[in-house]
Please model this.
Amino acid sequence: MLSPLNNMPSKKLDFGKSFTELEEIAEWFEKGEPDLDKGLEKFERAMELAQVLKERLKQAENKIKEIKLRHE
Amino acid sequence: MQIMTVSGFLAYVNETFKAIWDTTEVAIEGEVSGYRLSQGQWASFDLKDAEALVNVFLPVWKLNVPIQDGLRVRVFGCPRVYPKYGKFSFSAERIEIAGEGGLRKALALLHQKLEQEGLFDSARKRPLPRFPERIALIASRESAAYGDFIRILHERWGGLSIDLYHVLVQGEGAPVQIVRAIHEAGRGEYDALVLTRGGGSLEELMSFNDERVVRALFSSKIPTLVGIGHERDITMAEEVADVRGSTPTDCARRLVPDRTELLYALSHLQEGVSETFLAKMVEWTEQCDDVVLKASRWVATLSERITSMIRLFQSFDPRAVVKRGYAIVRDRSGKVRTSIKGMTTKDKLALEMRDGTIAVSVE
Model:
């Protein structure tokens, strides 16, 4: 089953997890398991992941917040 | 005659000491012995020479050099009697390491001790997460190091949440602030903890060689990244860190990937998957074709065999002979007769011909 990646706001995207998933799909294809149905599903998932990750890369802003040290 | 209380007497003595002692100009030089920390707040040791010793104590936050037993030091401060136990000691304000190369020697001793305890073991170094999101940054907000670090982060990566723990990175109180920042950051949920500052002299970098700072970094649950400006000497804070950056800029590079490079990597992955998928599709289709081909060949062979079998059966079919003008002779019981033996006149026979059967009698 595909998770609803498209509907996910980019903030909630776990970049590391998604990137690793994409790498795993690439690896799965390298191994070449002869399963057409799975292959199709994984191919679609890979394209979707790549697209969302690319979108996430466009995010430019970093937030900086100063934390006051508590005096012990 | 004047009668004093014990408290009054000691208060008088202590005030007298304070009045007559110059805490900035006079120092006692001797060798450290029995150095210890109590409650993490007080440091004490005996300062001695060949004939005498005096107890020295000071709050930990004033400790600005690595103290070790056997070290020669100069102690600035004031003599004091602790009223509760009437114990005479020297209340230190500042400690200097005496003699040429004393500081280096002290650092070497500390290094040796921490190394034996395994603080610098490479086996325990953790990798930084590939794509950190929440970062605890311990630095001085006014420093160039802070500016450089943030600038490179912005250049390379976005979407980070950075919490700045502003601290003094040198001078009195700096180590305590850094340790506190490390501990407070430890309570937050961060992917990485970064400690950075610009370069400086060995004396200026002492906070990064402070045993408390080094131990706090060692115990950090969050992976640590430490880097200072270009220096010849590596501080112990850098050595104990999971990852060391050679400069604040290098720290930023080690912390986050570069979006341009990653975009390239993503495209590469995407293409890789597409190409492999396409190749697989071709392979799968060929495999299917192959199966179909093999199956059709098998069917063809089978049908040939069937055809020849049918031909064979057909050649045995007596009706084919009848068609050419022969007849099959049967007697009354329907048995085929191939000889005249046993036949007599008036015997009834049946002749089976191409288009039917006819009854005849023998004459």
Summary: Residues 15 and 53 of chain A are 7 Å apart (CA to CA). The radius of gyration of chain A is 18 Å.
